[in-house]
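Record type: ASSEMBLY
Status: queued
Input:
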Amino acid sequence: MTSADTRSQKYPVGIDSVSMAEIERRVPAGEAPPLPPNAQLAVIGKSIPRINGRAKVTGAAPFTVDVKLPGMLYARLLRSPLPHARVMSIDIGAAERHPGVRAIHVINDVVGRAVETTGQNTPAGTSGRRVLYVGDPIAAVAAVTPEAAQAAVDLIKVDYQPLAFVVDLEDARKPDAPRVFTHPVHGESFAGGNPAGAALPQQGNVLGPNKSGSRGDAAAGFADADVVVEHEFRTQVQTHCCLEPHGLVADWRKDGLTVHMSTQFTAGIRAELAAAFGLPLSRVRVIVDAMGGGFGSKSSAGNYARAAVTLSRQANAPVRLVLDRHEEQIDSGNRPATVQRLRVGARRNGTLTAIAIDTYGTSGVGLGAGIGNFAQAIYDCANFELLQSDVFINAGPGCAMRAPGNVPGAFALEQTIDELAEKLGMDPLTLRERIDLSAVRREERRIGAARFGWNRRRAPGSDSGPIKRGLGMAQSLWGANVRTNSACEVRIFRDGSVEVLSSVQDIGTGIGTVLAQVVAEELGLRPEDITVRIGDTEYPAGPPSYGSLTTASITPPARNAAYQVLRKLIEIVAPSIAAAAGNLVARAGRISTADNSRSIGFREAAAQLPTDQIGVVASRSDDYAGFARKMGDMASAQNALGGVQFAEVAVDTETGIVRVERVVAVQDCGRPMNPLQIESQVQGGILQGISYALFEERILDRHTGHMLNANLEQYKILRSRETPAIEVHLLENYQGMSATDAYGIAEPSNIATAPAIANAVYNAIGVRLRQLPMSPAAVLAALGRIPQRSGPT
Amino acid sequence: MNSFEWSSPRDIAQAAGVATTTVAAAMVSQSGRLSTDGVVFKAGGIDLLDLMKEGLLAPRGIVNLREIPDLAVIAQADDGGVRIGANVTLAQLAADPVIRTRFLALADVAGNSASPQIRQVATIGGNLLQRPRCWYFRSRDHHCARKGGEVCFAFAGENQYHAIFDHNGCAMVHPSTSATALVALGAKLELTGAAGTKRVVGLEQFFLLPEVDIQRENDLTPGEILTAILLPPPAPTSRSIHIKQGETDSFDWPIADVAVALDTAPGGACRAAAVILGAAAPVPHRAKAAEALLVGKTIDADVARAAAHAALQGAAPLTKNAYKLPIFETLVRRAILAVVRGG
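Status: finished
Output:
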């Protein structure tokens, strides 16, 4: 940047009430001026109830499943009942003749999984497409009623040639295991755990190891260690369990395609469908209003949305396709299972000398079952060795789920660090003081320990009765991500009303409310004065709601757009109050001189507009001090996000039941924009973490390949009575990096929960659980309380 | 879900005249294809709708019993006991003052079943007659022995939630926790047949083990309506309790549940004992050895411990459910002590 289009500004940096300072940054000329810390602001940083909260709790908020268009058809999918088979022929004759059927689409090209370089995607009915898991989509039907669509699906005759299959992770690794893929595969790391496909060795069902991320000399590090801890950890497959299922209404018209879809990324779906159907971006519109969760699984169009669009094109009518709960469980993504062998070496003073991890996992027929960057990045250790492999099984593909990789990775490493502390005779917090270089987490540990009462922690297994209580803690690490391809418009109308517009969608975390706050703060108005228009690609293309990057990506352009449109308004009205534009600011509903001697009401000012409305579109500038990494539209900030969580558990050693009684979370997300919404999001992360730790597990039958708990009844999940007392404390951590300095919270709040619980369970009973979920069977087995009796089988 | 004919008789005589089959019979198929010629009774409809939505049952007709007013009443019986209409909801039972004071185990179980929403709709009759929750039985893709197929998939498969007793050919556990409590309380059933004839049968005798009939859980005959549950008057010195242990405490099935009813002489020995295990066997399982151990003894912690141990005599866990043994032992001991200390 040249000095002509930049200017120098001083920004507050540091942790509020701990270490505040100022830093000088060169910023683009159009940037809004620096924001002071939250305490000095009127709207930003205040706990404001979400703008559609009342509509949601009264049932008035429209979700995708509520969309009904004139002439709309209903679609259902035919899915493979077999875990592995060749489709020899498909006869749709009887289905076509069924009354009310309007379109049938046989699915030949599938997406969202590893792809063989040859052989897999040959058209069904000719040389025989292979279906790779129970639930693999085969065909789709659109009809005038859901019943007719289902009846027609049942009438499709498929001739399958069953093939040998494997659904058990350990079975799949054996040399003689049935092969899921017989040719070399490539594809994206949908599950997000580790980079996939980069010319990795592939033997049988094992792809890998991927050795990227290693540094130093692990062998030398271990030789240098006084203490080495080594264990194997196992984590299960967790499904996303969005309360609102995946679904869309696709409306193909001559002049373009409109899709109402429950999605985390309207602009991404637009690009994906435009490419898939050969349409210009300008002829595809994607809309979402209220959303009932995604957790990573609603980021792409998938096979189901492609099928619905195809049916709409064929039938020349809108088509609604909504997955049922069974389909949600078997084919809408999942968090991969992992098996991690961890080895950590340290000196007596706690200094880490080496970390070595050998891990494999399964993302079904997908890729990316790795353990993220948690162990690689959280602690100071010069020697780090990482081997990661994907194992293919005949099960639905994984996809990114809330902090992919880091959630299972933290479960293993944070327990290992806890054990290392015990071996060194150190408090787990003291050890982390030595090995964790983050000043933010240091403050989080201090606050958390005080609020939680860490000093109550006793030796493992101290309680004498059958119910034993324990305290544990663990830490979180996640990237501070930004998508620079994020834009927002702010408009001021002649009547003084204001609009903020972006295609960014509210996944449920309340970004619309935050946008209203940002614009209101800048224009000196109240959040309720701002009309928020989001979730529609007719508006400037906003970021996705994944990667914990939404707030970081869209609030700076929103503020800059508001700032710039306000400057336009001020230029227009300044003469009318005989003030220099440069002296005017907007506050408390008026535009006034700094000393308040001259002013005009915002509405009266707007009345002077020469046109009905003025507007400015702004997009995300780079972080002021630059990014750590940038690849295309995506960037990682120099700082990382973190958090520390403390858990108190009660373990019934006679029944194996673990109940979490209390969690204290201290989290950071740069500048907290709306503490009420952030606390709610952190609570959600903790609840999902408890559920992962204690209850959830996809169970596949190894003899039939079916998921046995493909519902919300046998798939155990946390509900109201398992909800503990939760305290959330937010750090204000200013960096001076953008017009809002705000970052995300979704994923960092989900990482530390399971290991904090596991460490608390150890503190309660003196036995470690290195496998998830920590079910009664697992706890009783760890305690040696299950009699060794064999049944009659 | 299929289309069906609907009728809603207003009294028992009218309902008993309809030619119906049992839900169990309507679900049996040799081929694995759904039969569509059954006509079945519906009470609350909780389980019936589940089965239909899961594609396991496709009746031609449904006879709704919900509009029969006599079936929704809890009344004092002539023998001093209580007569519970089969359409009484679980929520009604949990809130009823007589049930709460005289039959605590039943109040416990009704108030801890399913979710508040389901308890408002689910009837006690339907609860006793619901079909098993075994995930193989509930899967369209597993044609198991109970549905007319050849095998029980649980023995070689995922049996962590299955039976540890009496799994001869089928490893289901009986799904009704109410049944556990009602067997402990000595309940009988009033069944009204097609011609309006009534028979009374002990609840415990009503349930059938797979070795007797693998395709049905009870002795309900086609056309028969469960009209009432009859509870004998408890001795003034008796007390009961039901403990349900799920993996979660909200809206979950038990991994183990236990009902204990004890009649104890004031300050003295146990005169009669019932120890019933639920989620343990294809029927509510009476722990006879535990009962025998309790009768005649003044119950203290040691006696309770010994009885709890005896309750698992004959247990034969499967590959993945031996963890249930220590849980049952714990629940039985705690239930006995809770009854004794509560008295």
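Annotation: The longest helix of chain B spans residues 324-342.
Annotation: The mean pLDDT of chain B is 96.
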